[in-house]
Amino acid sequence: VNSISITVDYNFFPAISSLSPPSKVVGEAAFTLTVNGSSFVSGAVVKFNGLARTTIPISSTQLTAEILASDLTEANLYGITVRNPGINSTDSNEKIFKVNNPTPTLTSMSQESITVNSDSFPLTLNGTNFVAPIAEIPSSGSWVYFNNIAVSAVTFISPTILTANIDASLLNSGGNFPIKVVNPPPVDDGSNGISNELIFSVVSPAPTISELVP
Prior knowledge:
It contains no helices and 18 strands. By secondary structure, it is mainly beta. The strands form 4 sheets. A 5-stranded mixed beta sheet has the order 2-9-8-4-5, with no helix packed on it. A 5-stranded mixed beta sheet has the order 11-18-17-13-14, with no helix packed on it. The chain starts with 14 loop residues before the first strand and ends in an 11-residue tail after the last strand.
């Protein structure tokens, strides 16, 4: 009986069930990601956002991959896949890895009050974890809210300083109004990216006496 040779290409379809950890915060250091699943073989490669990362096989159900600090510079949702070696192999299902923005905090303001019907003015906010906007997308940075109204003109100075132009239309009536900073998603610590609040007072001007009669 004559014989023929065949090539067996195995384990085309790895599957991911979970990631550990499932998220990190922008700016964190490089770390080792554990990928759990099935049908992993020697030579399997973990991909972060489509880019292969150094991978160590632990077993047919677990891999580790070295995620770079450069992978954690921008908040977003990134796809993690696994590809086994083989001519006809395909990528696994995708699991989402979150790179989160931090939650901002407010510590102080350049001023805490102004008189009713004042002109627009710049307010400097001091705190932590403020986010710079991506180039040409101003809405991707930290937002400032005055009495729950978004301030349209916000300038990122540093992770600890923002300036917000408070429009005169917000100063038409007196009261004590909350100021807060909101970072864009993803933010995954239950805060929804919202800072603590500081109170800004819009006050009526003090009366003056010019004359008494008699």
